[in-house]
């Protein structure tokens, strides 16, 4: 039998190529096309925001033109949590600019790198997850591409058709083109040393260096903004007249209290003279929030994905469930905007642990802590909660889905 690669988590460095002048887009007071405004913010800001939302992103390097420092600083002001995005100056060609970006990632402990055109703002998290799946399986180079749909013709120097090119197994390449970091850096260094400057993309350099390149499904929306009309159409697509696809999900859960040494709530263990009874770690807060997230995209509930009858989940930490739900949301084009959990319990006291709980939610969901809320109340000694027989949780999640 063939040996299967064990999947490994990736630590992704991102190189965004933004040093071009974009002459085909025409002159504009806004500067090169990567700084033109679409949907109220610069093109490159949309691109950077998407990488910011991807949990596997560890470092982002943007390769800019030396003349564009002010333009980039303005664009970065539109990006939430963009302070740690670094820049490096590009070279005379795209190939030289990419090499500068790759060199800037040295010492950053990245295992893989995604190289992306700044003027492709309409890629999505689902595409990034397909790339990550291939990289984590050990694929050294991954190329997102879509099959060529148009009939292709070859002409002579006078523009006369010579023949029709069969389009079977022909693909249109996209970015981010993605690689094992050390392999593509070495290939770029070798190409520079050999004075090879005729490569049209990074996958071509990998091919030249003998690195196998695997195609994964690209996205028809992942278009490159090249001419002025492309930018106008992108702005129209992101027009504020379109209704945002904002969805809210609710979740409720309750677990019985039994004698024990403590409870786990929002991923935080709190010493107590009781514990929560359940098949997993019985984290009632994360269970309710998992249901709330799944509800935003009609993906069922926690029991559909993690049946209590399955022995593999016995004693499992509930962060597995919440991270799974967040991954489903992102694969379906959603951006988690906030998470709110209300705990209903007579004891233990939640207040002293609230900030740690919020930090855990921020970690599990990949969002900033100011978007995570944890509240608690008692049941005024009424009912099963009031009798300290159980703890209940109500959760609400708000997700914005990308309209196609």
From TrEMBL:
<comment type="function">
    <text>Bifunctional enzyme that catalyzes the formation of 4-diphosphocytidyl-2-C-methyl-D-erythritol from CTP and 2-C-methyl-D-erythritol 4-phosphate (MEP) (IspD), and catalyzes the conversion of 4-diphosphocytidyl-2-C-methyl-D-erythritol 2-phosphate (CDP-ME2P) to 2-C-methyl-D-erythritol 2,4-cyclodiphosphate (ME-CPP) with a corresponding release of cytidine 5-monophosphate (CMP) (IspF).</text>
</comment>
<dbReference type="Pfam" id="PF02542">
    <property type="entry name" value="YgbB"/>
</dbReference>
<feature type="site" description="Transition state stabilizer">
    <location>
        <position position="279"/>
    </location>
</feature>
<keyword id="KW-0414">Isoprene biosynthesis</keyword>
<feature type="binding site">
    <location>
        <begin position="253"/>
        <end position="255"/>
    </location>
    <ligand>
        <name>4-CDP-2-C-methyl-D-erythritol 2-phosphate</name>
    </ligand>
</feature>
<comment type="similarity">
    <text>Belongs to the IspD/TarI cytidylyltransferase family. IspD subfamily.</text>
</comment>
<keyword id="KW-0511">Multifunctional enzyme</keyword>
<feature type="binding site">
    <location>
        <begin position="279"/>
        <end position="280"/>
    </location>
    <ligand>
        <name>4-CDP-2-C-methyl-D-erythritol 2-phosphate</name>
    </ligand>
</feature>
<comment type="pathway">
    <text>Isoprenoid biosynthesis; isopentenyl diphosphate biosynthesis via DXP pathway; isopentenyl diphosphate from 1-deoxy-D-xylulose 5-phosphate: step 4/6.</text>
</comment>
<dbReference type="GO" id="GO:0019288">
    <property type="term" value="P:isopentenyl diphosphate biosynthetic process, methylerythritol 4-phosphate pathway"/>
</dbReference>
<feature type="binding site">
    <location>
        <position position="255"/>
    </location>
    <ligand>
        <name>a divalent metal cation</name>
    </ligand>
</feature>
<feature type="region of interest" description="2-C-methyl-D-erythritol 4-phosphate cytidylyltransferase">
    <location>
        <begin position="1"/>
        <end position="246"/>
    </location>
</feature>
<feature type="binding site">
    <location>
        <begin position="301"/>
        <end position="303"/>
    </location>
    <ligand>
        <name>4-CDP-2-C-methyl-D-erythritol 2-phosphate</name>
    </ligand>
</feature>
<dbReference type="GO" id="GO:0046872">
    <property type="term" value="F:metal ion binding"/>
</dbReference>
<keyword id="KW-0808">Transferase</keyword>
<feature type="site" description="Transition state stabilizer">
    <location>
        <position position="24"/>
    </location>
</feature>
<dbReference type="GO" id="GO:0050518">
    <property type="term" value="F:2-C-methyl-D-erythritol 4-phosphate cytidylyltransferase activity"/>
</dbReference>
<feature type="site" description="Positions MEP for the nucleophilic attack">
    <location>
        <position position="224"/>
    </location>
</feature>
<feature type="site" description="Transition state stabilizer">
    <location>
        <position position="33"/>
    </location>
</feature>
<keyword id="KW-0479">Metal-binding</keyword>
<dbReference type="GO" id="GO:0016114">
    <property type="term" value="P:terpenoid biosynthetic process"/>
</dbReference>
<feature type="binding site">
    <location>
        <position position="384"/>
    </location>
    <ligand>
        <name>4-CDP-2-C-methyl-D-erythritol 2-phosphate</name>
    </ligand>
</feature>
<dbReference type="InterPro" id="IPR036571">
    <property type="entry name" value="MECDP_synthase_sf"/>
</dbReference>
<protein>
    <recommendedName>
        <fullName>Bifunctional enzyme IspD/IspF</fullName>
        <ecNumber>2.7.7.60</ecNumber>
        <ecNumber>4.6.1.12</ecNumber>
    </recommendedName>
</protein>
<dbReference type="InterPro" id="IPR026596">
    <property type="entry name" value="IspD/F"/>
</dbReference>
<dbReference type="Pfam" id="PF01128">
    <property type="entry name" value="IspD"/>
</dbReference>
<feature type="domain" description="2-C-methyl-D-erythritol 2,4-cyclodiphosphate synthase">
    <location>
        <begin position="247"/>
        <end position="399"/>
    </location>
</feature>
<keyword id="KW-0456">Lyase</keyword>
<dbReference type="InterPro" id="IPR018294">
    <property type="entry name" value="ISPD_synthase_CS"/>
</dbReference>
<feature type="site" description="Positions MEP for the nucleophilic attack">
    <location>
        <position position="167"/>
    </location>
</feature>
<dbReference type="InterPro" id="IPR034683">
    <property type="entry name" value="IspD/TarI"/>
</dbReference>
<comment type="pathway">
    <text>Isoprenoid biosynthesis; isopentenyl diphosphate biosynthesis via DXP pathway; isopentenyl diphosphate from 1-deoxy-D-xylulose 5-phosphate: step 2/6.</text>
</comment>
<keyword id="KW-0548">Nucleotidyltransferase</keyword>
<feature type="region of interest" description="2-C-methyl-D-erythritol 2,4-cyclodiphosphate synthase">
    <location>
        <begin position="247"/>
        <end position="404"/>
    </location>
</feature>
<dbReference type="InterPro" id="IPR001228">
    <property type="entry name" value="IspD"/>
</dbReference>
<dbReference type="InterPro" id="IPR020555">
    <property type="entry name" value="MECDP_synthase_CS"/>
</dbReference>
<feature type="binding site">
    <location>
        <position position="387"/>
    </location>
    <ligand>
        <name>4-CDP-2-C-methyl-D-erythritol 2-phosphate</name>
    </ligand>
</feature>
<dbReference type="InterPro" id="IPR003526">
    <property type="entry name" value="MECDP_synthase"/>
</dbReference>
<feature type="binding site">
    <location>
        <position position="253"/>
    </location>
    <ligand>
        <name>a divalent metal cation</name>
    </ligand>
</feature>
<dbReference type="GO" id="GO:0008685">
    <property type="term" value="F:2-C-methyl-D-erythritol 2,4-cyclodiphosphate synthase activity"/>
</dbReference>
<feature type="site" description="Transition state stabilizer">
    <location>
        <position position="378"/>
    </location>
</feature>
<feature type="binding site">
    <location>
        <position position="287"/>
    </location>
    <ligand>
        <name>a divalent metal cation</name>
    </ligand>
</feature>
């Amino acid at each position: 039998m063939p040996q299967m690669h064990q999947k490994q988590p990736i630590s992704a460095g991102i190189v965004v190529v933004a040093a071009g002048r974009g002459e085909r887009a025409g002159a504009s007071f806004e500067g090169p096309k990567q700084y033109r405004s679409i949907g109220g913010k610069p093109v490159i800001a949309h691109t950077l925001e998407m990488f910011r939302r991807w949990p596997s992103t560890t470092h982002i390097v943007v390769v800019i033109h030396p003349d564009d420092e002010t333009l980039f600083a303005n664009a970065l002001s539109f990006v939430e949590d963009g302070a740690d995005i670094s820049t490096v100056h590009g070279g005379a060609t795209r190939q030289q600019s990419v090499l500068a970006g790759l060199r800037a990632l040295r010492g950053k402990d990245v295992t893989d790198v995604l190289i992306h055109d700044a003027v492709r703002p309409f890629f999505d998290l689902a595409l990034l997850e397909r790339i990550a799946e291939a990289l984590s399986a050990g694929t050294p180079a991954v190329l997102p591409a879509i099959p060529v749909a148009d009939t292709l013709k070859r002409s002579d120097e006078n523009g006369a058709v010579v023949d029709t090119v069969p389009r079977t197994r022909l693909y249109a390449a996209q970015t981010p083109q993605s690689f094992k970091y050390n392999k593509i850096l070495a290939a770029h260094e070798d190409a520079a040393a050999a004075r090879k400057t005729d490569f049209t993309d990074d996958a071509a350099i990998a091919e030249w260096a003998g690195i196998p390149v695997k195609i994964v499904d690209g996205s028809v929306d992942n278009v490159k903004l090249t001419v002025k009309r492309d930018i106008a159409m992108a702005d129209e697509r992101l027009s504020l007249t379109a209704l945002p696809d904002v969805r809210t999900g609710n979740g409720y859960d309750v677990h019985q209290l039994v004698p024990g040494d403590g409870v786990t709530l929002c991923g935080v263990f709190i010493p107590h003279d009781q514990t929560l009874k359940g098949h997993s770690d019985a984290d009632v807060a994360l269970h309710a929030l998992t249901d709330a997230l799944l509800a935003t995209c009609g993906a069922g509930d926690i029991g559909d994905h993690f049946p209590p009858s399955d022995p593999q989940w016995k004693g499992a930490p509930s962060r597995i469930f919440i991270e799974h739900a967040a991954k489903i949301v992102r694969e379906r084009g959603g951006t988690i905007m906030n998470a709110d959990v209300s705990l209903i319990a007579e004891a233990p006291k939640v207040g002293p642990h609230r900030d740690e709980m919020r930090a855990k939610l921020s970690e599990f969901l990949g969002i900033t802590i100011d978007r995570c809320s944890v509240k608690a109340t008692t049941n005024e000694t009424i009912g099963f909660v009031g009798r300290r027989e159980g703890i209940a949780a109500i959760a609400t999640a708000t997700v914005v889905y990308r309209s196609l």
